[in-house]
Sequence to fold (1394 residues):
Amino acid sequence: MFIHMIRPKSIAVIGASRHPDKIGYQVLKNVLDAGFPKDKVFPINPKADQILGLKCYSSVKNVPGDIDLAVIVVPAKIVPMVLEECGEKGVKSAAIISAGFKEVGNVELERKLVEIAHKYGFRFLGPNIVGICDTIKSVNASFCQGLPLKGDIVFITQSGALAIALVGWTKMENIGLSDLVSIGNKADVSEIDLMEFFGKDPYTKVITIYLEGTDDGRRFIEVARKVSRKKPVVVLKAGKAKRTVGAIKSHTGSLAGSDTAYEAAFKQSGVIRAPTFPSLFEWAIALSKLPLPKGENAVIITNGGGAGVMATDAAEQYGVHLMDIPEDLKEKFRKFMPPFGSTYNPIDLTGMAGAEWYIGAIEAALKDDRVHSVIVLYCHTAQTNPREIGDAILSAIKNAGVNKPVVASFIGGIECDEESDRLTAMGVPTYVSPEQAVAALGALYQYYRYLKKPIGKPVKVEVDRDSAAKIIYDALNEGREFLLPSEAAKVAEAYGIPTLSKPLAKNLEEAEELAVKIGFPLVMEVESPQIIHKTDVGGIKVGINSLEDVRKTFKEIMENVSKARPDAEIKGIIVRKMAVQGREVAVGMHRDPIFGPLIMFGSGGIYIELYKDVSFRVAPLDTVSIDEMMKETKIYKLLTGFRGEKRGDIQSVKDVIARVSQLALDFPEITDIDINPLFVYEKGCMAIDVKILLKRK
Amino acid sequence: MFIHMIRPKSIAVIGASRHPDKIGYQVLKNVLDAGFPKDKVFPINPKADQILGLKCYSSVKNVPGDIDLAVIVVPAKIVPMVLEECGEKGVKSAAIISAGFKEVGNVELERKLVEIAHKYGFRFLGPNIVGICDTIKSVNASFCQGLPLKGDIVFITQSGALAIALVGWTKMENIGLSDLVSIGNKADVSEIDLMEFFGKDPYTKVITIYLEGTDDGRRFIEVARKVSRKKPVVVLKAGKAKRTVGAIKSHTGSLAGSDTAYEAAFKQSGVIRAPTFPSLFEWAIALSKLPLPKGENAVIITNGGGAGVMATDAAEQYGVHLMDIPEDLKEKFRKFMPPFGSTYNPIDLTGMAGAEWYIGAIEAALKDDRVHSVIVLYCHTAQTNPREIGDAILSAIKNAGVNKPVVASFIGGIECDEESDRLTAMGVPTYVSPEQAVAALGALYQYYRYLKKPIGKPVKVEVDRDSAAKIIYDALNEGREFLLPSEAAKVAEAYGIPTLSKPLAKNLEEAEELAVKIGFPLVMEVESPQIIHKTDVGGIKVGINSLEDVRKTFKEIMENVSKARPDAEIKGIIVRKMAVQGREVAVGMHRDPIFGPLIMFGSGGIYIELYKDVSFRVAPLDTVSIDEMMKETKIYKLLTGFRGEKRGDIQSVKDVIARVSQLALDFPEITDIDINPLFVYEKGCMAIDVKILLKRK
Fold:
């Protein structure tokens, strides 16, 4: 379907203009200038007979033959009318360049476009786009001045300004694109649709996206997951800064900035995240040109110690593993360096290295089965020229006769710059700085590891949904947007989460009875809808050892609370067992407006927000995501028995994570869950405090 | 003194050669090609009469008149001889290009050079250098092909390969340098000497250094601190990666990688650390071209929302504060944008923005006293050209008539690139990506904040040095490289650190006596030279409440320890008060081989190595460093009363830090100190565990 849009065989320009300063003129001219067959281009303008030598039609309906793509540049108000005509004519797709819709508040007008397209069963791009540049079929249905260079990277962009600017920049940088598509307001076609299309497109090897936000988080993950199995997806997601953080209601919520969900979603779907637009393309080049490595061992070969050290620093930063060179391989390297060279990775051939040494060392590395990738660094010297070193790299690769990724950094002036372009074109992505080369190889490794990773199995848990539902809906019916601690504990229990019981005493008498029943030592804590952080108001006491203590504490808590929060309605005082101290972790959920339930795991206790040792994944979770999210935290190390500490029951925590995920999926009314602390023991675990926030649907 | 070396009036090239492929030829040719007066250049070669049209001398001693700089390119073995001749002649300085010294193991030969120079009282650069390039007096005493462009940034480099490569690269990037100096093995002249020289040099505005390591940490800090008050020092310090971490003996030691000391030293001396070589120069340009801001408020003005979002992300990352725009200023911006533009910083003029809107908006920002810096972003559009936008920026600055820093990012093709160069030359540093522009402004802010910061006062503490000395030297005389816990506690006490007493019971009887004397509850812990982590071997028990408990525990600890560590010599069992629980922090010291005592503060407890919430400074400390290092940690927030927690006595912790620093300065035999935990109370604090490691001097 999208093939008609991206690589049309016929184009109508609706709103084509005779005035060179109008976009309607520029777009038509761009279509023609890019070399699209003239007889398949149809300007539509009721007031003109002819534009740029082409016959003009008063309506798209009058055009003879099929139209694959209608490019619309008429004023916003008229767009619904011409779109209707497109439908009547049976055009296969549209690209609405016209602005003046949702971006200026005209939501209704934009919705009308979608209705029309649905009615006639065609798809449209935009509105408010720059257009489509396709170098495969030479289509420039945009107001970009000229097409980008031919290539196999697609750039999908939510920013139109970036589209135009990057046509020029990619040309200057010699970066080839298969397509550049501006998605504008994405009223109909989104980055997800295009990711799916380009995932199957034989001309495209790497998909790059500039993204500010997706509208359907779940589908983004699904499609990205499928596509990234076939080809790399690299995303520049802007909008990490916390300039606009909304109201914070829960620990998990406050820890999950809006960017957290994207970060989690990218990890779960194999999307590679680039930090800047130059790195987006630098990485895409490496991903499009290079074979995947077959293992983790990278070797750096350099003629400058300094460049080598910089690359080593970068390797640690970007997750590239530098191989410890085995003695026999060191022996081989030694042939290509002076006695004061270094065979400790980086392999330093020294400033004396000429082409022959480069060839020898690179070939030795590539031929060795234990080496999986090579980073070549060259600092321009007075004795060598970049071209001969470039040739040396290419010869070494040819001589070795193996298919392993090689990246390079050529540091120097204009000759180095030119040689870098040539080498990149020849399949050895070459960058200015060692960091850039290592970072690009790091992106390749990130992709390699994603593909190598086992595919997770969905987690299934048995739960008592009905019991939980009753508690939740009762609270909602009472008009509450949270569960009381005693209720939350019951919901957790219903979902099979081992939970500390929290029986409620409405008065001192009941408290004494409970104390006798449970036995000492005890904890007492206030139960009040208004009090979330009990410690802050003196609403909780631990280590209660006698009935006398119970009486004293009951009075004390009541006094503390009414002093600190005179407004609070006290439902009673929980009298509960003092749980055996375990390792404190936290499991939580925050419902992201775009991605849905965002599940958290991390270090628990009262300092969770201080240390922020947490990680996130989007539900539903599979076995691999749960495993990964735990391993991303520091507390995980403790659970595995750090510094002689006892091991924690990791499996039981995984089970709790799975159950929290299920609870969130079953009840869209739950906005936040905090289990903190969850005590982890050598065997089993126990939720000590459970908080659940609700919102009526 | 260095003026003769860097900007000589006469040059002898010792080892000048007639053979164009020899460095001795190239260097002479480079000197002449750069335009140095022919009659002040003296080739020295006993086997030649004339080289490159100049009269040749058999020895430097035969040259008539003074020689400011002798450039030496003879083989390593002959260098001492010719250096001796230089001394006899009275040359004012030397630059030894010749290699074959310490870098290949010839330490003795290199030492000889220093001796000779000392004997005659001149200074020399190298050996093993590329040479000196000075654009101020057009000196190219190096084997770099041609001089860099003229400018006001000096580049001092420990990597020779980088020197040559960056001459080409800076030319290509239109970056001007005052000097480029390769320091090689720095047997005599170091980066510190040169930093001092260029600190006073009127031609140099910014000092940049590529550094792998300094030899005198203390002096580096002293000089950098003085110089950075006058002009910015930007350092690319390579070698962060932990590929080679030595043996780890203490918490503080394991947390202080070799890079940690540099990081601390840079902070204490105002050195700005750049992560890559391109950023080193990008930042230096901003620092050399721009006035310092007078406040924190930055405003972004853009024609593309996407570029604005990227810049916002970068602002958070690089510590640039985006101003909340006051309503009256918003009003002013609104005149220069369509109704759907944005006055929420970034100010989005939209893709419709032409030169007039840019002028208006930038002028409005610059004229407003509440705005201290401006970031202008331009995405190339079909309707505008970079030159007119560049002119708009320059006009706005002229119209506003104020001296505020303005940086820019022009995203687009070759025209944008050219305009960026022009704007940079005109005083508006302009970069490819928004991130680069913001990062450069961030460097300027870093410098601004350093200069604004109050100058710390040295901390003075009164201590009982003699008591500490006795304990320390007794242990060393016993052949021990550590203090026993009871000894360490006494040393801490002697230094005025509030410390939990740790009386030692040699047998059960003494333990019972101590228990009665101290009162319950108690802690008992094993004292053994072999046992550092007591928890790991069951060597510590808390909450002992009766004499019966004392007896039971004594037996238990003995059994645990002899089982876990049958090799351990048990000196006895400490019977001590159970300290009232306070907030757990840690204070420590690790003696860095280069910088000396590296003082640590951070979150304490057993998970210090897990969370690594620590910060470091090099002793001696001043009031400002102590304050800063505490504020860098997360635990500091807790001490100030986070989420309703009680405040901790911060002043008492500062005092402990000062005393630990003094202890480390007084005893070079102490290699490591760990106070962990240090319990912090609302009033005062107490060192619970003190560990001290020693090494005989």
Q: What stands out?
A: The radius of gyration of chain A is 32 Å. The CA atoms of residues 94 and 124 of chain A lie 4 Å apart. Chain A has a mean pLDDT of 94. The first strand of chain A starts at residue 11 and ends at 14.
